[in-house]
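Regression test case RT-17, inverse folding.

Input:
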């Protein structure tokens, strides 16, 4: 895959209307208060740059799953208001995504001004990648800038469609994703260690497979470890486990051995007699979980051993928590791993979602090189899958 894509730095935007695709899919409470504005704050550098360069900025995003219908509880108006507060300047809300109001505002917008289009997913053509809808969207602007890495693996109208009609480049968020993750995947400093956790083993086998032969070590943890233990004939009690992945896991372990990638499995496990923070717990040898118990977190021996491997790494990719970290009694493993990654001094990439949340909860986000803004997209990128939202951008 070619990671060298043009960014806003490589194109003259002065006096141009720029359609900027952001990921403003932010959580809201019942009163439409934004409960976490991280995604909006992260987009500020690209927006400010465009404004300073004298572009007229037309921002678009999706929010939630309106499934092609105009559901006003998913309007982007609160996002526009919040963005306006953060920037200290007016952000005009457009009540269309495409259509007469959007066309009028796109004609009237002046350099240095910002308009926010209504939720892209109010339009059925967005997710179906409809060409006519993409054309209408593209007609509002002269240049397209994509800064929504989280949707780069989707063939949606605002992701790939508009790039067929406009010069297309990336913003600063995608630029950083490409430079940090691209380097790790093509020319990593060694040892290169992947830390793979979380619950959905089936979703991550592709990624584990792509790391075999590329990484020096893979540290398996979290819920997915029990499928590995089961594949080896261990006992896992009532721990989470994916029957369908058993065979593949066995195959991956053989491949890893043949290709010189060391797969580590936990040494000890904290088990509980129910899926609850108040459960009775004990520490047992991993792969020897007694009946009536389930594995909830890695144990202290595992934290120690994994931290040692992590401390020697020069490149680290981490995806997925070490245990049920949402419950305080089962968060120590994830916290220990987060601390080890932060202390390692390695180039460290945290792949979205829960592992990113753990790093942030501990205030360690500044100690890692890169926290990816895309969950599924980051996984596909690291797997080496060509992301349609990236390939359609102009090459450097
Ligand atoms: P994923 O989306 O695959 O990264 O999985 C994240 C989820 O995995 C989190 O909600 C964790 O609570 C969960 N998880 C981690 N370890 C375990 C475990 N041992 N048993 C059940 N769930 C787990």
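Golden output:
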């Amino acid at each position: 895959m070619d990671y060298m894509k043009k960014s806003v730095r490589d194109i003259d935007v002065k006096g141009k209307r720029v359609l900027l695709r952001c990921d403003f899919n932010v959580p809201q409470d019942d009163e439409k208060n934004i409960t976490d504005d991280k995604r909006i704050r992260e987009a500020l550098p690209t927006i400010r740059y465009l404004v300073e360069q004298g572009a007229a900025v037309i921002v678009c995003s999706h929010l939630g799953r309106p499934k092609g219908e105009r559901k006003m509880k998913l309007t982007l108006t609160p996002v526009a208001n919040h963005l306006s507060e953060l920037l200290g300047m007016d952000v005009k809300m457009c009540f269309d995504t495409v259509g007469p109001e959007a066309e009028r505002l796109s004609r009237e917008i002046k350099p240095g001004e910002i308009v926010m289009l209504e939720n892209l997913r109010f339009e059925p053509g967005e997710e179906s990648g409809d060409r006519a809808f993409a054309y209408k969207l593209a007609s509002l602007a002269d240049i397209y800038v994509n800064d929504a890495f989280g949707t780069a693996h989707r063939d949606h109208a605002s992701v790939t469609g508009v790039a067929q009609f406009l010069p297309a480049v990336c913003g600063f968020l995608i630029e950083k994703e490409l430079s940090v993750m691209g380097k790790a995947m093509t020319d990593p400093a060694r040892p290169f260690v992947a830390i793979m956790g979380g619950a959905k083993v089936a979703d991550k086998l592709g990624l584990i497979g792509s790391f075999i032969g590329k990484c020096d070590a893979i540290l398996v943890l979290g819920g997915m470890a029990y499928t590995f233990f089961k594949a080896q004939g261990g006992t896992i009690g009532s721990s989470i486990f994916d029957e369908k992945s058993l065979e593949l896991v066995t195959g991956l372990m053989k491949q890893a051995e043949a290709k010189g990638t060391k797969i580590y499995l936990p040494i000890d496990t904290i088990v509980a007699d129910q899926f609850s923070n108040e459960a009775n717990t004990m520490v047992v040898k991993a792969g020897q979980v007694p009946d009536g118990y389930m594995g909830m977190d890695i144990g202290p021996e595992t934290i120690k051993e994994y931290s040692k491997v992590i401390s020697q790494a020069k490149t680290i990719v981490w995806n997925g928590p070490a245990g049920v970290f949402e419950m305080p009694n089962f968060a120590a493993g994830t916290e220990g791993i987060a601390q080890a990654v932060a202390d390692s001094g390695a180039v460290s990439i945290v792949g979205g979602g829960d592992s990113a949340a753990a790093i942030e909860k501990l205030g360690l986000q500044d100690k890692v090189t890169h926290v990816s803004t895309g969950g599924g997209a980051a996984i596909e990128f690291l797997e080496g899958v060509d992301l349609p939202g990236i390939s359609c951008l102009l090459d450097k």
